[in-house]
Amino acid sequence: xxxxxxxxxxxxxxxxxxxxxxxGRIGVVGGSPEYTGAPYYAAISSLKFGxxxxxxxxxxxxxxxxxxxxxxxxxxxxxxQEVDSNNSALxxxxxxxxxxxxxxxxxxxxxxxxxxxxxxxxxxxIACALKVQLPLVLDADALFLLQSxxxxxxxxxxxxxxxxxxxxxxxxxRTCVFGDDSKTKTTIGSKDDVELLARALGGVTVVLKGExxxxxxxxxxxxxxxxxxxxxxGGQGDVLAGSIATACAWTRSSVEIFPHAAIFACTVVKIxxxxxxxxxxxxxxxxxxxxxxxxxxxxxxxxxxxxxxxKI
Length: 312
What we know:
Blueprint: H1 3-8, E1 25-29, H2 37-49, E2 53-59, H3 60-69, E3 74-79, H4 86-98, E4 105-108, H5 116-131, E5 136-138, H6 141-144, H7 149-155, E6 161-163, H8 167-178, H9 191-200, E7 205-208, E8 214-216, E9 221-223, H10 236-250, H11 258-280, H12 286-291, H13 293-300
Parallel strand pairs: 1-2, 1-4, 2-3, 4-5, 5-6, 6-7
Antiparallel strand pairs: 7-8, 8-9
Helix pairs in contact: 2-10, 4-5, 10-11, 11-13
């Protein structure tokens, strides 16, 4: 069965009986004074992909900027970046975990920064989320966190974790897991290599972003052949992270089909990237991709318009 066929049974039908949140409530942990765009891109992309509600949990110093980008995103300042203490980090953990009962999936990392206290707090959030079986997408600075064996042990064997590295982040992760490259016989970044890494991580889903995205949980490996745009502007990874979180949320925590959900999201974003590039060419940026996510999704799973019959 193809990933499209699998997702056809997961994507919520749009009916008049839905209530706010029925199509997904997604959280994003990220956003620092230096990086406010990344969490916004992840959050707005989850909405444009089809989720109903998104929350961004960020530094107080980033909240105003993120709020200004869109009124559709609920921005929750959860820590003070200027307070260099464990108390601020603990506050981050407490505030984010309070929202867990409202969420269907959580993205960690976009624009998070690499402050040691915040990274330690992020590790605790990951552990808490896994205890309540919340699907987790780890991207950007959350992947940087996985350089330590302690952090790797937190996610190892947890099939609700989805990692979304680019090739640089993938090589770093691979080195942390395998050490010397000579210990493996696979070509770095190949389909077999991604499968080997996912298996070594105990069934974590790995999404290697590239010309042809490769997704594997160690037993099921998929590759998208969809053609994307020819420009790699900043923010495209954040768009994908938010889209994957929504797709995985729709599976209702059926972890065995996370690879199908992830490759479906990769396919939609590739189509959107191609559409945006063909309209903007060198001027293409992440918002151009976000603006066509809806029509790209519609090209795979068309939704019929509402027809109103004339009443006499």
